[in-house]
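Researcher: We're teaching a course module on how sequence relates to structure. For the next exercise, students receive a sequence and then see the predicted structure as tokens, so they can try to spot secondary structure elements on their own. Here is the exercise chain.
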Amino acid sequence: MEKIIEKIPNERIQRYDLIQRFFGDKKVCMFDIETTGLSPLKSFTYIIGVNVFEDGEWKIIQLFNDDGRSEPEMIRAFQTIIKDYDILFEFNGDTFDIPYIEKRMNIIESKFSISLTNHFNDIESFDLLKFIRPYKMSLGLPNLKQKTLERYIGLNRVDMYNGGQLIDVYLGYLASGDSKARGLVLRHNRDDMEGMVFVSSLLAEGLLSRGDFEVTGINTNVKKNSSTLHLEISIATEYEVVRPVCSMMDRINFEFDGKNGTLYVPIEEGTLNYYYGQKESDGHESVSGFFVAAASGDIQGVPLYKEKARDKISYIMLDDTFLGNAGFLKLYAERMIYDIMHFRGRK
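Model: And here is the predicted structure for the students to work with:
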């Protein structure tokens, strides 16, 4: 087995790296594998790439099956690395990489009587593919391939081969020892590993959705290209969103660029009802004024109004109780942004 270590210069990725911001004090490592096929019964692992954050910088560790026989040694080295971490960050790893390695470990132990320790149960996996899937529509992504996500954030790398094509390149390397073939397979995995740090910038969508921002102002205004009066809630973050976000749910807009954004919610004028129960017969109180659509989930202390008791859509009245409370505004913005970012269309 060959072990290759490379440092990623901070200046290359610091604008994109949101791992520490998202996971806090938890220790995170990333991994990705290259295999000679999709079935662990008929193929084997030839590269395991691992990203670790040490001494304030990311390092790429590539464990390379350079002789075609080093898979057990390579897997053991990988398992030794991950046992000291809290989060295993991967891309489609829950579906492919982790089950593949576990099946290979079982086969190796059964066939060659080699003992291998499985630390997957000791570490929490985080699959970026699963994480980003709810945001596909709001971000306007055509698909969720890693290269598509890289292009979305502005990373355009040149990759001459895909993983399937590199199988023959690797097998050719084993047969001939050709240095060019070795470089191609290692480069592909190395670029995938660096790309994983870059696409961690998409964790910003999760940070916004969970309310990692501050409300910096509120206003009522007629939005550009609209004749409707809107409630505008301005927000700001300490981190940067590397690509502008412009998402819509019904007539509600959320726009964000860099470290600042605005939530635009149409204001409705009219008379709505506050119901004392779930049915019309439970009684109600009618109130006239200005309203905005409520987000999913109640905000304790903020009354909800409807046209009819069983209506699914609720409204919040724009009075001093709501507009004068910074906590209510923050919760409203947080939940509305979450709804917009996860919106997949009305059924």
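Model: If you want an answer key for the exercise: The first helix runs from residue 10 to 13. DSSP finds twelve helices and twelve strands in the chain.
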